[in-house]
User: Fold Hydroxyneurosporene-O-methyltransferase from Rhodobacter maris.
Amino acid sequence: MAKDDVSVSRSEAAAAPVKPPAGPVPDLGREEPPRPPGRVGFFTRIALSPRLHEIFERMPLMNRVTRREGVALFDVVSGFVQSQVLLAVVEFRLLHILAEGAWRLEQISLRSGLAEDRLAVLLQAAAALKLVKFRRGLWHLMPRGAAFITVPGLESMVRHHPVLYRDLCDPVAFLKGQTEPELAGFWPYVFGPLAREDAGLAARYSQLMADSQRTVADDTLRLIDLSKAKRLMDVGGGTGAFLRQAAALYPELDLTLFDLPHVLEVADRFSPRLTLAPGSFRDDPIPEGADVISLVRVLYDHPDSVVEPLLKKVHAALPPGGRLIISETFGGGEKPDRACDVYFAFYTMAMCSGRTRSPEEIKQMLEKAGFVRVTKARTLRPFITSVIEAERG
Ligand SMILES: CC(C)=CCC/C(C)=C/CC/C(C)=C/C=C/C(C)=C/C=C/C=C(C)/C=C/C=C(C)/C=C/C=C(C)/C=C/CC(C)(C)O
Ligand SMILES: C[S@@+](CC[C@H](N)C(=O)[O-])C[C@H]1O[C@@H](n2cnc3c(N)ncnc32)[C@H](O)[C@@H]1O
Assistant:
């Protein structure tokens, strides 16, 4: 079971050298593209020709296109290294150190505990990622680095990525289903009854979920209108962060938080308007009484065999004309998106329980459960969340 402690910096860990796990050395046989190319588009045909690569590189306007494509490809090629640079920046607390002021390399070295020669390489990489910059002998924080440490939960999200990256370190075996992903046991551990074994760890990760929910809730609430709603029930609402933000915008709204009993034990009882409804949407009916029900980052955690009955239960709990709000990242749409179709699709695949669904799939499931007037997915930032609304038919 993964138990990464998000509260202990790796820079404080014992200094014994750690050998990275050895793996097979890849066989680097080079595979030539087919000649002539198969049925491919015009531009793809051009890109399949090494000769045209050379010609384009020498043509004044076309070389801009090839260079731009080269940069985009290199970004994909090096994505893992960029993420690991970010993780090191986080673990050595470099952005926090620079948020206190601009410092010389030696000063940052003393404060971070990282030797100057290696720190210089790390800071230079962070500067290339525009997180920091070097001016007149001092290292400074850049707006991007400042935003990074300010977005709620983002640093902790990055600190838990080693669990995901361990699962993806052999993507072929992972995709063939030949691995046992750690992430599969991770969130069930945090939210499941096993959380009692390590209540501190569970609380820290519930906090991470609540922190990251602040941005999700902000975007969701900007995309929906609850001014006519009387009672909002958040199903799988965790500690209640979404309802707290909804209550701040709509003070007259009555609220119900439905989640597993042990999760509600640590829920935020922020208002007398809030009712806690402990239960499992797998085993229990969803309580009636709300004219709006929300499912925020819930469906993609579960397989269709759980989601379909859940949507039916939500339908049964709503009055005629009642609304359902689904907010999470959707993938598989007509416009493939890096955040949803790369990050979240693989993240949820590693969880082994649910999957990232397309808006079209969600629509079909909603209609099957009896919902009507299903809206198109709307979003402000696809990497934060998108929203679909539907009405009880
Ligand atoms: C005036 C000009 C032009 C410039 C001056 C400079 C200036 C002031 C710039 C502005 C700086 C600024 C204010 C920037 C703000 C940036 C923001 C708000 C960035 C937000 C970024 C958010 C990110 C990257 C979010 C990432 C979210 C992640 C990775 C979420 C992961 C969630 C998971 C894994 C959830 C799992 C749930 C489960 C388990 C599947 O159910
Ligand atoms: C990914 S978290 C999302 C929490 C919150 N909505 C958010 O966006 O931060 C999934 C939530 O679903 C809850 N959950 C999982 N299985 C459940 C079940 N069978 N019945 C009720 N809640 C459940 C978990 O306890 C957790 O709070």
